[in-house]
Structure to design on (695 residues):
């Protein structure tokens, strides 16, 4: 599904990613771990096309398509979703209008007519339940005045609405209490299908306990230095990252 | 100086013609206004309150004036079709500066309420007009007010007697109509007596593709415990110049809600002076400006807290595109007597291009020691983080920019107290940003 080949990327002339190779197949969940500054968020930003990053070398293919040639919104239409580490507040734009614009933009991309207002509201109602987001939040401005937990739940709600093929969760567990973490993780699991995949960026095992990744990667200084099964995450939880560095 | 000489000569030659086609109460102030105009001339950019708009150059083109009051045939319903859904108003028309008495709303206004020609009212109710006309708008300190007072022959009177609450909003559509380039000097007098209330919506439209220059001087007297909502919407075209001087006087415990919305125009300058003369009065003043290409919009506000325990809340928002220029100067003056004043003043602006320019000057002068006041201003671009967030969800950059601009000015629209008008304005603003608002919504001539 996703194939990253020798990816180099920089921000303000500083190279952050120094040759990433990563393949994610349908139905797989990959965990991406690493110390602060290793390049995890940069990688997720580059995949979704954040304008601040420049790709200097390499390729990203998504279902065979050259992702780097597409604009961020086109990448979204192709089925890529990023759950932001820090979701942005957008005063004055209601969740309803925001989601309607997003959904109908994709339908247009797919050559479909806009969704009827009644169907859309019904869909909102259904999907809200997945992350126990109450009606009031849905009628408010996007993320404005939401607590940290509400913002993260709202990310998963949007994911439920847009039904992406590849979801990237960038520290979706940060700032969540145990109950909120459970709601978010269970919400995510409900949305999983054999056709969808995910890249989960996290520092902690507790999110992975819920999500059960198939593969765990360790990113260090802009490269993937170790790839293994789920037990790697448990080992990192116990021993930290230094032993990996020493082994290199 | 040259352009002001033109109008000095005009007045000297035409004074008797002007008088003949107006009313004694209006004529009474002309000579003094003329002297003031000779002394002041047109304001220059050296004057503090005209720093951002070169008024004299606006008068340089040769405009015709209809001093002889030649009837301009027009069926306002042909030129304007207001389709504000669910907004049921008492609809009146003013063509240039002439009140259209042939086209009146079917439903009558509450007893004693007057909406009509100022000139006629000055003849029929001279004492009412004499006790108000020219009392707020001093021609001695503003060249535009002086010119208007010297030349204005007609306009509009809105009078709400003591205790009368006008439930249905009154909508006045000002239509500019001419076959030649035209100058219009319109005068508006609004008197809301004690315990009375009215909601007024003024819509400015231009029905012809001509150069228009309008000077409009409005005086609004808001009595004790009275309430005035005054919404002014400009949807004209690039060849239009609007110079509006609005003077509001509030008595004790009165409330004013004023909103100036500039959606389309050429050069717009709105001067708004509000004075609190009685305690416990409040005002909410807002404005939103959507300007592009070479449009120029300048809002100049003075809030004069002369007495204590009043509150003022000012919010102006601009979105400037292309090479548009915007200016906002808001001076809140809290005099020594004005203890326990509360005042908030905000001006927030988006310059969507590098060429767009915004000049902003929030001012707060406090001479009392027990007050709660704040003022501030921001100029910026559209939030890139929000743009990217929206794009990641599949919304195109262009559409995301639009939604963000729309949300930005939406805050001002939401302060209005007429819900159908809010809905309508949201719709109009959206169309404006999408570039679908040709010249003015509802004008058959524009389609």
């Amino acid at each position: 599904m996703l194939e990253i080949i020798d990816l180099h990327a920089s921000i303000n002339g500083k190279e952050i990613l120094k040759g990433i190779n990563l393949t994610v197949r349908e139905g797989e969940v990959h965990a991406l771990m690493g110390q602060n500054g290793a390049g995890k968020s940069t990688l997720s930003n580059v995949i979704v096309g954040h304008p601040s990053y420049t790709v200097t070398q390499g390729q990203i293919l998504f279902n065979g398509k050259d992702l780097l040639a597409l604009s961020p919104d086109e990448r979204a239409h192709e089925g890529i979703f990023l759950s932001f580490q820090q979701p942005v507040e957008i005063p004055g734009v209601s969740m309803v209008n925001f989601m309607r614009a997003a959904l109908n933009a994709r339908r247009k991309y797919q050559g479909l007519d806009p969704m009827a207002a009644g169907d859309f509201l019904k869909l909102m109602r259904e999907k809200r339940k997945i992350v126990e987001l109450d009606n009031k939040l849905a009628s408010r401005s996007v993320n404005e005045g939401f607590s940290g937990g509400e913002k993260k739940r709202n990310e998963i709600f949007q994911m439920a609405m847009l039904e992406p093929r590849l979801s990237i969760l960038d520290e979706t567990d940060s700032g969540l209490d145990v109950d909120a973490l459970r709601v978010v993780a269970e919400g995510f699991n409900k949305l999983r299908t054999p056709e969808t995949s995910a890249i989960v960026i996290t520092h902690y095992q507790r999110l992975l306990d819920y999500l059960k990744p198939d593969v765990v990667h360790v990113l260090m200084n802009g490269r993937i230095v170790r790839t293994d099964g789920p037990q790697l995450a448990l080992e990192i939880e116990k021993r930290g990252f230094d032993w990996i560095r020493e082994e290199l | 100086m040259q352009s002001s000489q033109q109008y000095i000569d005009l007045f000297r030659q035409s004074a008797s013609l002007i008088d003949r086609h107006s009313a004694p109460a209006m004529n009474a102030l002309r000579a003094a206004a003329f002297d003031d105009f000779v002394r002041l001339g047109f304001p220059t950019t050296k004057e503090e309150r005209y720093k951002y708009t070169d008024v004299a150059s606006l008068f340089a083109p040769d405009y015709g004036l209809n001093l002889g009051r030649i009837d301009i045939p027009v069926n306002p319903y042909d030129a304007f079709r207001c389709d504000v859904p669910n907004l049921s108003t008492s609809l009146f028309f003013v063509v240039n500066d002439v009140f259209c008495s042939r086209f009146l709303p079917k439903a009558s206004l509450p007893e004693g309420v007057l909406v009509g020609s100022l000139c006629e009212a000055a003849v029929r109710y001279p004492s009412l007009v004499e006790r108000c006309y020219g009392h707020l708008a001093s021609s001695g300190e503003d060249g535009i007010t002086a010119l208007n007072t010297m030349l204005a022959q007609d306009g509009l009177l809105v009078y709400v007697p003591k205790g009368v609450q006008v439930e249905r909003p009154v909508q006045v559509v000002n239509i500019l109509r001419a076959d030649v380039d035209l100058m219009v000097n319109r005068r508006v007098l609004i008197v809301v007596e004690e315990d009375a209330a009215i909601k007024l919506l003024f819509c400015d439209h231009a029905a012809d593709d001509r150069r228009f220059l309008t000077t409009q001087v409005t005086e609004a007297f808001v009595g004790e415990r009275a309430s005035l909502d005054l919404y002014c919407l400009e949807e004209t075209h690039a060849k239009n110049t609007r110079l509006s001087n609005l003077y509001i006087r509030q008595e004790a415990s009165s409330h004013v809600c004023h909103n100036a919305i500039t959606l389309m125009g050429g050069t717009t300058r709105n001067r708004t002076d509000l004075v609190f003369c009685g305690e416990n009065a409040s005002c909410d003043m807002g404005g939103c400006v959507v300007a592009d290409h070479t449009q120029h919009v300048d809002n100049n506000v003075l809030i004069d807290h002369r007495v204590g325990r009043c509150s003022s809340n000012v919010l102006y928002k601009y979105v400037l595109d292309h090479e548009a220029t915007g200016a906002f100067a808001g001076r809140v003056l809290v005099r020594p007597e004005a203890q326990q004043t509360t005042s908030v003043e905000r001006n927030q602006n988006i310059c969507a291009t590098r060429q767009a320019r915004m000049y902003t000057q929030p001012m707060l002068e406090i001479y009392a020691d027990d007050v709660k006041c704040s003022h501030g201003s921001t100029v910026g671009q559209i939030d890139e983080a929000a743009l990217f967030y929206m794009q990641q969800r599949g919304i195109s950059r262009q559409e995301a920019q639009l939604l963000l601009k729309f949300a930005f000015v939406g805050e001002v629209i939401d302060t209005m107290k007429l819900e159908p008008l809010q809905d309508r304005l949201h719709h109009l603003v959206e169309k404006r940003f999408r570039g679908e608002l040709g010249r003015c919504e509802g004008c058959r001539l524009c389609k």
Remarks:
- The longest helix of chain B spans residues 2-20.
